[in-house]
Amino acid sequence: MFDIFGRRKQDRETYGDRLPPGQKLTDGWPVLNYGSTPRIDLDKWEFSVWGEVEEDLSWTWDEFLALPSTEVTSDIHCVTAWSKFDNEWEGIPFRAVMEHIRPKPGAQYVMVHSYGGYTTNVPLADLMDDDAMFAYRHNGKDLAREHGGPMRLVVPKLYFWKSAKWVRGLEFILEDKPGFWEMYGYHIRGDPWKEERYS
Description:
The protein is mainly beta. It has helices at residues 61-65, 94-98, 124-127, 180-183, and strands at 7-8, 24-26, 46-51, 57-60, 70-77, 82-93, 109-114, 119-123, 133-138, 141-142, 152-154, 167-173. It has a domain at 38-70 and 91-194: Oxidoreductase, molybdopterin-binding domain (Sulfite Oxidase, Chain A, domain 2, Alpha-Beta Complex), CATH 3.90.420. The protein is built from four helices and twelve strands; from the N terminus they run E-E-E-E-H-E-E-H-E-E-H-E-E-E-E-H.
């Protein structure tokens, strides 16, 4: 049996500790956006780093893709209570980007910025996990535009709204502050294992 999101109606005990509290497994990938899906010209695409850093940086699409890449398999968990297991991602590890960034002392938070104006805040410590990355492929195919293509952030340990679609840059900040959904009542961090859905 499936619900309207394509979630299999099986409880958490079936999956042990792999499925966070309050989540149901889906075979699909629901598309949930606020606003329209941006159309991004790769010839004009730019990824920038600014804020509390020693030097502002920017990459073109080709320059960014020249950074070391990796493949990671991870589960994702949406705040709307669906989870999708075994997603195969290909992209640039966050750590590979950090090798070029020199944050100023105390800059322990990042505001992620996207094309279309979306923002979300993420602690730098969460971004430094082995599986955090800027993904451009999913399950062997280029990332679809409705799912954040050409590139999205993926932070599997947090609810999926933290994995910003259409990512275009990082603003390093000294104190944690809310991004778009956080200003509308979503939790400031968003740990699915603690059910940090809303503030």
